[in-house]
Amino acid sequence: MSLTVEVSLISGKTVSLEAPRTDSVESLRLRAQRALGVGQGRLLNSAGAVLDGKTSLERAMLQTGEPLTLQIRTVQVCSGSMAMGAILGDGSVVAWGGSGADSTAVREKLKNVHSIQATTMAFAAILGDASVVCWGIASRGGDSSSVQGQLNNVQQIQATKGAFAAILEDGSVVTWGSDFLGGNSSVVRDLLKNVQQIQANGLAFVMDPSCLGAMFDLVVTAVPFKIG
């Protein structure tokens, strides 16, 4: 049996497509892109949820006449010093270049990506469910395993040359990567509450914890080290 769905762009342009229920969402997406004359995008169901391309139309529980949206996004590019990464229109990621570019180990996880940040040799991506996927050189932030259990409901990520800092929904902050480049915030962890914004230079993070008011304007997370 087949079903007929209406696939629309945000602009309102719509196409009606008929497909067997055994067809994949990916197949329907490609047909919709060709019919609408647009580039790569992703399909959203009537509730606004992203449809998994590998799922059949039947398993995705699509119904005849159901309105779908083909969401087209411009390519977003992020660069480290030796590699580059880009979020494609369908929310997947490609990376290329030198050290830090190889995302093979996490490629299957890089779907519905909302944003990416880069250190010199690593990348961190925030997914649609507000979790984080990292890849690249471990000592430059490419390995978040030590804090992975804390990386939930992530709202924002910033990067120094070798570390990442993430603001969570509750205003707390999680850092990882090189201790000498901002990755170790243990000294100020108790101060990092109700944080709304993070800025970074090459070596450290600066945060504005609004809960501290006039007592503390800035908190810098970096391990001091002596040069020379």
Question: How would you concisely characterize the structure shown here?
Answer:
By secondary structure, this protein is mainly beta. The protein is 5% helix and 38% strand.
Say what the CATH topology of the largest domain is.
Answer: Methylamine Dehydrogenase, Chain H
Q: Please state how the strands of the largest beta sheet are arranged side by side.
A: 2-1-4-3
Oligomer: single chain
CATH architecture of the largest domain: 7 Propeller
SS summary, helix count: 1
Strand content is: 35-45%
Number of strands: 16
Shape verdict = elongated
CA-CA gap between termini: 74 Å
Radius of gyration: 21 Å
Structure description:
5% of the residues lie in helices and 38% in strands. The chain has 228 residues and is mainly beta. The protein has 2 domains: 2-72, Phosphatidylinositol 3-kinase Catalytic Subunit, Chain A, domain 1 (Ubiquitin-like (UB roll)); 76-221, Methylamine Dehydrogenase, Chain H (7 Propeller). A hairpin with a 4-residue loop joins strand 14 (195-200) and strand 15. The radius of gyration is 21 Å and the shape is elongated.
